[in-house]
Amino acid sequence: MATNAKTRKAARYAVPVAVAGVAAATVAMVPAFANSGSPDLPKVTAQQLIEKVAASDVQQLSGSAKISTDLGLPTLASGLLGGGGVAGGSANPEDKIAQLANGTHTVRVAADGPDRQKLTFVDGKDEYSLIHNGADVWGYDSKANEVWHEKDTEGAAQGKDQQGKGHKKTADRMGGASPQQLAQDILKAAGPTTDVSVGDTAQVAGRDAYQLVLKPKHGGSTVGSVKIAVDAKNGVPLRVQLLAAEGGKPIVDAGFTKVDFAKPSADTFAFTPPKGAKVTEGSDHAPGGRGKEFKGLESFPGLDALTGGAGLDGGKGGETKVLGEGWSTIARIDTGAGKSLKDIENDKNAPKEAKQFLDSLGGKVSGKFGEGRVFKTRLVNALITDDGKLYVGAVTKDALVKAADANK
Q1: Rounded distance, CA 258 to CA 264, Å?
Q2: Which of 362, 357, 354 minimizes the C-alpha distance to 380?
Q3: How far, in Å, CA of 337 to CA of 370, rounded?
Q4: I want to staple 314 with a disulfide (CB 3.0 to 4.6 A). Which of 11, 30, 180, 366 is the partner?
Q5: What are the residue ranges spanned by the domains of the chain?
Q6: What is the CATH code for 31-281?
């Protein structure tokens, strides 16, 4: 029973993850663009550079950064993710994170150890701030004058010894969003399917940097490479670029434009809700990673029609299976669809929203598995087959078709 519940949950969020899940990774890359110049630095090996990142113990910094994301999302998906700036609307951080999956955003960042971080997203004169100060996490939307608050007295009392235990709260996710942690996670996940090398030197935010380059060893991935610019002096990752196999500008280009490694003043992390602001208390048991954008997609009439009114619950005993490894990993999910894509396409009485949803999925494909549609972005692609199977991963359309043929 528990296993079925787990697979149904995975199926329920499969398409949202394909469209919007990358947003969390985008925020994790917070620390944009390299200054001109290739400084002359002593030669290092990839292993030495990895060790330099791992040994870096910098926990105090402040500065400004840019996050530029170009996923090539279809119009429908862009609308569901919420275009425009991060300010305005709910102050819940989950709602803001998804909006970083599109466009360019300016961020001010400050950190003083694992218990104090602050991220401020600036769009014009409006700002959204996410502040972690000890046991308190605050989200403040200046445009809407709304405040979101979460208190973690238990986590604060347990201290560092309890990191990694229990459910992840917003404060934990902010700590994991540091550029140091991001780089370490990427390097840990690299594994045998990745070629790691040292690229050209660079200057980022006026600081000399080495560039660590990670590339998939095998074809089929939409990712061409990941470049991590590492501060030559202290080993702090200063910029992360995610480059597409198909070329063009980076899918994600996130890095410091200005950085200072001095200790930020204590009042940087102080926050009191402004007079008249609406304050919402966060729930300790609220499901992480599920914002308004997920609910908007799962209730979309077209998706409802595709799954016979069941959303993506996989309510008919759906099953999730992981195919491949490393950069070429594909998730195969049985959605338990009540109607085939052809049924929707040929049904004159089907809601117009359903057909709009089908059109947004992109071109038709066929193979030994039958027929289906591909939802395409520059990073994550998804194949929905006519019989209700979903194949999703950071892989090419051809790789999805091949997987569907082999696992029909």
Answers
A1: 14
A2: 362
A3: 15
A4: 11
A5: 31-281, 299-406
A6: 2.50.20.10
